[in-house]
Structures are given as C-alpha cells and as structure tokens.
Amino acid sequence: MQHQSQAVHSFNISISSKSPPYNSSSTLPPPQSHPSPTISNSSSSSSESPGLNPYKNQSGYYLPISTTDKQEKQQQHQHKYNNNSNSFTNTVDTLNSLAATNSFAIECPKHKQEVDLRDYIKKNSNSDIYSTFLNLDYYNRYFNQNQKQQTQPSILSPSSISSPTSPSLDNNNNNSFCLCDLKTMLLSRSDFIQDIDTDSNLLQEYHRLKMLQEQQGPKHTEILLRKEDNVGGRKALKEKFVEIFEAFFNDEDPSSGDPKFWEQLFLLKVNIPFLERCIILSSEDRLLVLKSKLNNIFTQSCFWLKNSDPTRLSHIIEILSIMLKSIFRKKFNNFGFDVINILCGIDKADTVFPEFIKDSTQLLKTSDVNIKIGIINLFNIIATATDYMNQNTLLQFFMTVDISRTLLELLGDKELPKSSKMNIMTLLCYLSNYQKYETQNPYIKSLSNLDDIEKIKQLLDVITEGIKDHNKLFEEQFRQPNLGMAAKVGGYFSSWIYTPPVVHNCSFFETGSCLLILYELFYQNETFVKQLVGGGWSREKSCPEILSQFFTFCSYLASDTPKESKALYSKISLLILMLISESRELQDYFHDPKSTSYIFIYSKKSLFPDPKELEKHPLSFHVVDILSQFIKCNLKGKQSMDTHQMSVDCIQRVLSYKKKTQSRLPHKWADLWSSLFALLQVLPTIQDKSFLNQSIQVGVATVNIFNLFINYGDSFLPTPNDYDDLFYEIIRSGNVVDNFYIFIQQQPQNDPTGALLNSLLNIKSIVQHFSGKLQEWSSANPEVALTAPQVSKIIKDNYDTLRLKLQENLDQYNSYVENKEIALFRHYVKELVCDLKKQIVVTPNAPPSPPMK
C-alpha cells in the first residue's frame, strides 16, 4: 500500500463529475476473508522488524498531529461539528468504539511520547478539524476506490492494508504513517455503506464538510494539487509560483536575503486562479494584517515595469491585474484609504502610483501588442474599482499624470484589435467624467481642444464602428419577426449555399461609451463641428457616415426602448439631437437643401433599407422623423417623462429655426401632429403623482408647438394645403384638447397665474369655431355624410370668421446647460462601470481578435 506523504489537510476533496456511477450491486470483500492487521496491546511487546518506519513502535501505528497548537487555537471559533446524516457510520464513533474495547498506545512523533488512543480520541473527537479530516478522508478514499476498483484491488479492502510487519514499507519515509493510515486500518474491521454516492443526506454532508475544510485549513493549496495519479493516490508537487505566494499569504517573506528573488519570480508562469483565490478567501482584516507583504509585491511589480523583457512584463501585468481586481471586490470601511494602504502604503502613494502610470504609459508607446492590451485592461480595472466613479480615489493620480494624448494615439494603431480600441474609448469616457463638475478635468480639456484632424477621424472611426455593430444587432432582431413567408422560405434555401455572418451581442459599456464621447465632441469640440459641416468626412458629397449610422441607431432605438439600458441610450441620443438643433452652424448644415442624402430610418412603414436609396431628404427631415417616433412608440410603456420632454424640446428648436429663416421643409407633417395629439391624450391618464408636474410641462410644451404651427406655419409649411390639414387634425382631435384643458383646470396649484390655460386659448378656439360650423352644415344637410374634402372646404370658407390671439416668444427657449443633467450623467457612467466590471476577465496572453479595418 502506498502511503500519503501530504499533510492531512491536503486531501483531495473534489468529486469528479466524470467518474463512473457506483454500482450498488458490487460489494467489498468481507473482512473475514483476509487477515486483519493486528493491533497490539500496550502491555505486549515484540521486537521491531527491520525496514519498518522508525516512528512505529511495538504498541502500534503512530498518529502525527496534523496542526500546530496555534492553528488549533485559531480554529476554536468554528461551528461545532454536527453530523446530520444517519446513513453512514461516523469514523469518530468507530474509533471510539474500538478504543473502548482495545486499550493500546500510540506514539506522537511531534511530542515524542506515547499516548493512549482512548485519551487522544476523547480529547480530540470534539474538534471540528479532527472530525472533518476523518470524514473527508473516508469519503475520498471510498470514491477513489469506486473509480479504481475495475483496474486494481480496492484500497479500502483489508487485503490492501499492509500488516504491521510488512516488509514493503519504505524505511526512508519518516512520515508515511499518519492518521489516515490508522483510520483505514480500523475501518477495515467495519462494514462499508453501499449507497454512498446516491444518498442525498450523505452527499449534502460531504459538501458541508468540504466548505468547513476551506474555512479551517490552509485555504490556498487545494486547487494547486492535481488529481491523484493511478499509483497509490499520490499528489503532485506544488509549482514554484504557488509555494512563493502561499508563503506571502502565510505572512512570511520568501524574498528576504535573496537579491535576485523578484527577477526570478517574474519569470514564473502566473497561476491566476490561485492568486485570485488567495485574495478572495482572505478577509478585509486579514489583508490589512498582510499589508507589508502586499506592499512589497505591488511596489516591486511596479518597479519592474521598467524592465524590457516581454515575459516578465506579461507576468507582472497579470499579477497586478488579478491583485487589483480581487482587492477591489472587498468591502472596506474606508475604501480609498484602505486600498491604497494595502497596495503601497499611504506615505508612498504619491510616489508609487504616478511612477506606475508613467511606466505603463511608456509601455503603451513601445511594447508589443499583447503588452499594450494588458496595460489597457489594467487601467480599466483601476477605473472600475468603485461603482460610483467619484469615489475612486485612485483616479486622482490619473488627473495628475495625463495619458489622454497616448490613448488618442493608440486609436490609430493598426495592430490593436477592435475590442482593445473599444476599451480605450471606454477608458477615455471614464477618465473624462471623473469629477468633471467639481474640478478641472484634463481629459475633458483634451477632448474639447483636440484640433488634430487625423486623431479626430480615428476617434470617429471607432465610434462609427461601435454604433454600426449595434445597428447590425438591431437589424437582426427586427428582421426575423417582420419577414414574410416567401422571404423565410427563400432564406432557408439560400442558407444551404450562403452562410450569413454571425451578429454578436453588443455590450452596454461599448455602445454607451461611443455615444458619450460623441456627445462630448458635439458639445465642446469646435474643430469636429467645422469639419462635419465643411464635408471633411463626407464621401462623394453625401452625409458623413457617423451621422448616417447615428440616425439609423436612433430610429431603431425609438422603436424599442423597454430596457433601462436602452432608455439611457435614448436620453443621451436625444441630448445629441438637441445639441444639433441648437448649434447655428449645424442647423444651417442640417436644413440646407443641398445636403440631401438617403438615411435608413426604421419604422413600421419602412422595415428594411432601400437598396436603391431613391428618397433623399435634408438631414432635418430625418431628425423630425426620429423625434416623432420617439414620442409615438413610447406612449404605452413606462418611459420616463424626460424622454418626451427632450423630444418636444428638440421639435421646438427645429421649428424655431424654420420660423426665423422662413425656409420650408417638405415633410409629412401629419405624422408629427398625430404623434403629438397621441401624447396629449396619454398625459391626463398618468396615475403616478410624481410625474404630475412634469407631465403638465410636457403637455404645455406640446400645445406651444401647435401654436407655432398656427401662428407661423404658413411661413415654413411646404404648401397651403398643409396648413389646412393642420386645422383638420386639430378639429379631429377636439376631444383630446378638451380633456387636456379639463386636466389643467383640475390642477390650479400648478398654474397660479393662468399661463397654462392661456396657451390653450387658440387651439381651443379653433375646435369650438369649426366644430360649430360643421354642426351647422350637418343640420342643413342631414341626409349627406361629411367627407374629408367637404371638411377641408368648410375650413377654407370660414377662416375669415376665426379670431385668434397672437402669441409671442413661441420660438424662444433656454439653451441647453449640461449642469442640469448631472444626475443623468452620473447614473449613466455608473451603469457603464458596472457593466464593464462584470465582463473584465484576466487571462494569460489571450489571443487578440482581428484588427479593426
């Protein structure tokens, strides 16, 4: 029999899912069919056989103590062992019963003195770790026996247990006899359970003991030991990296006295699961106790970033990444202070972290692509340390050492894969939003002052690719439900010849970061706006691709916003549209009839892009279409009033420009009027009182848009017939106007001056005036039903008797100020951080994805 040389706490405790099921029909050989080992009484004596282990005396087998006194004291706080399973004979009970009838002595090698087995069990049988070791070893041996019984004799059978005088024992192995050997010998005298792998209570107890062992023994060694080999169940040796870091986490310093220690350590392959487990299974207080050791690891890792060896650099980046990622998962009382204290110490932070950022930035400029990818991921781990970015004190060092220029240059690196460029975009987004309203942020300044046209183009290329990928995902989601039977059959047969490309899901942090950087460019970068208006990025005098993809994205988004992430997309997209609607340079470009182009706007009437691209319109035409859809497609859901308010405000800005320039926009205005009346119809039915004030404001803003059409529509509507159609729609929606008027009257506290009711006077007068005329005509012609042309004729004939009040300042609005949206941006960035944090995975030298075209 091969005896284990490992400590008791290093037993294999995993059940392989691939092991063959136990055959309950098979039975172990009966104990009486083999000679049982002899346990000599303490009073008996016999001579020591040659070749026996020196730790074995005449009284029997030795029982080494597996833990030190210090470890036993630390384990006293663990829960007392409670055996809830009645389906098996407890090993401790077996030993107790045997000790009661066999008075024999054993010698403890640690204390070099004989002890009575009965006394030893009496003192230790209540110990959690003692019971755990016994039971776990029993289970492991039994399951190992099930896996091996087809090829070799059972290690649990009495025949496989050497007798006390067996010459096969290795006399050089001083620790070959341990507690498990004695226990196995004793267990051979009892019957074994035949349903051990089917008894649910027993398996539940196994998992409980497994978890208890993780809490008691050294926590970090279990996953390092490979599965038992086929000869004797021996364990493989630990790798060097594991031994070193296990010593660190046992509060030892293996680097002391060795000047080449760190140089050699960083050449070792990093065991990522082990290092992560060491930190995760250590409590916050334990990490603070290990502060000096962790300081040493972190500071030496940062120092060796100056080394030029790519193997060392790769391993250092892996160590730093997994250390930071695991420590950031902990919940400290003072997160920023404690984390810095654990990593490098408060007194050294102002030196270590700036040097670390500078050295890492230098690697981004000179190293190979794998090192660059690792540094980018490491920076993103630091940026996502806390859910709320302003609480991440580590980012303050990035404000001191500005790396924005390096990040922007990396966007033009053709060797970097697309995913890494997206991560750079995400990092720029995070750093530019760190305390942007409290202090001067160098990254916001870099984005606003960026005047290098080539770098802006590289930035736009990444944004365009990100939005285009999401459009492909939208197209795939909307295409299948809207395909006809012929298209589905044709697609099925064509799939035999042509396999369409697989559309992968897009992460929220990728698309969200692209939208936020695009917002910053529209909001603050004058060079970007001038190049956009001047056609610097247009192809063949058509619309720039970034605008085409963004408008298509907005149209898909307007038709599908049930999730919170898409609602956030909608708000940022509407803010971009508002910036476009306010900027005079962009307004001139968007309303210019010469800037016509085809852009696919998804709607129920236009499900798929037109391959011929026949219908070309000014960009403002597409803006009005998108805003109309945002209103019409989100009336029944739980869409926030903010989205409707932004949509109505954008429409007001478009109409105000048309009124000032008196330029006509050929558009199907009836669709917009229908959407606005649908919104007015929904507002009085909202039950949530928290939205009451905002719903009234949205309703009044909608009414003012109709006032703009009524007072100044003849100057920008395409034809006089469109003006007649406006009155036709108002009369047709008379009940909606009356209900909203009553709704306003019922809220006097929200309209103390009566300004809200005054805004409804004109539209109310139109409904009353023409409703009376139509009633008179119906009374005079009772046998004839009114038709649409007859209604239009009555409207034209009665303009002269209509009296309206001229309303001023309808084209005035408050310019957009970002400070009013602070809560939105902080919530938006928090969601981006949380999404990226879930998806960051540290892998050793993962192969990069294909580079971006």
From TrEMBL:
Superkingdom of origin: Eukaryota
Cellular location(s): Membrane
Coiled coil residues, start to end: none
GO CC term (a single one): cytosol
Compositionally biased residues, Low complexity: 12-26, 35-50, 150-168
The UniProt record lists the keyword Membrane: yes
Region (Disordered): 1-62, 69-88, 149-168
Protein's recorded name: Armadillo-like helical domain-containing protein
Organism of origin: Polysphondylium violaceum
